[in-house]
Every structure is written in C-alpha cells, then in structure tokens.
Amino acid sequence: MKWVKHDTDANQDAKLQNVMLDYGLEGYGLYWYCIELIAGRVDKDNITFELEHDARIIARNTGSTATKVEEMMRYFVDVGLFENSSGVITCMKLASRLDKSMTSNAQMREIISNFKSHDSIMTQSEKPMQDKIRLDKNIKEKDNATLVLQSFEFFWQCWSDCKKSLQVKNSSSKKTTLEKFKKMFNSSYFAKNTEQEFRDEINLMCAYAKHNHVEADFIPFKNMQTGKFLTNQGWK
Which carries the bigger pLDDT value, residue 105 or residue 185? Predict the structure, then answer.
C-alpha cells in the first residue's frame, strides 16, 4: 500500500496517550514508523500485516538503540497496539483501516472487501478508559453471541486461507468447529474477560495460525484440523 489512513485525533487514543506518557514523542514516532513499515508491504501477495524489520535495523534507521526499540515494542504489544506470536510482530487492526480507494488493483480491492465484511472482529481504537469500563460492564449476552458468531467467521476464513496457502484442502467440519468455538467462548468466558480481550485473543489465534502455516515448522500444521488447534490453544 502506498498510503494508510491516519486520523488527526489518533494522538487522543488511550493506548497512544500511555505511549506518550511513558516514552514521549520517541515512542509515538516509533509506533507510526512501524505502521508505515507494515502497511508499505501490504499487497495482494502479502496480507500478513507482519513487521519484518528487526530491532537493530529499526534502531539504525531511527537513531535509537536496539535495546530501546525492543523495550518499546514489548510495550506496544503489552498495551494491545501490536500482537506478538512466537516472535512475529503484527498489527491486525490495520486490516480494518484499508480502503478500496488506496489501490486500483482488482485483486487487492477484493481482498479489502473481504476484510471489511469481517472488520467487526478487528481491534478497534479505544475510547477513554472510563467509557471502556462502563461498556464492558454492560455487555449483554445476546451481543456476545453475535460477536462470537462474527468472530468465528473471521477465524474460519483465516484458517481456510492458511490451508489454501499450502495448497491443502480445509478438511475440518465447519459445524463441529463452530460448536467447539462457542463452548470455548461462552458466558463463563465473558464473565472473566472483556470484549476487547476477546477481540485481542481472536486476532492472536489468527496470527498464530498464519505464522505456523507459513514458517519452517509448518509441517505439524499442514494437515491439522481446527479441533486440535483449538484444543491445544498454542496461541496462549
């Protein structure tokens, strides 16, 4: 992608406010530099939203140190700005920021449409913390059920894409997987976890699935079915 949407009030995001409190403009600038690096590699053949550059390269390009960059990157993951799956840094919320106007490529525009159909599960910008707490306390069970179904469709598409990338058919039963998925994320789960924590976990599940289907250790995952994947909970 040649450009990415950047809201003029992004600095008011609760997570970025904390970044600036702890690391000042250095942390704020590093965050957007990483976003540029990730978005710059997104095209029809690469929709992993992974950060390929390591801390040493980023430090060299930004005038910082590798130790400081690693510290700030861990902080970004801890507050939920990025995800970390087996050492692979991703920013899945970028998918929800894509827009068809960003590209004239027909395949890429179709990919963006697919993402938009599932964007309700993507990590969203935080409201001020007091609003978030009030929202979390008033989540209704029926809303959770809808969110779980939307999340399942997002996960199922991700899993199917993982198999397709290895030229393997997705042999898992969608109905059986859905039942297992719903048991995992039931009312007891939401009694202990907020909606945002649920969103973060689904994004982490998908990042973990993608990572293990494309890396050198993909062999155990090549023919793995969703039941085993969900039971193992390797993303945790």
Answer: 185
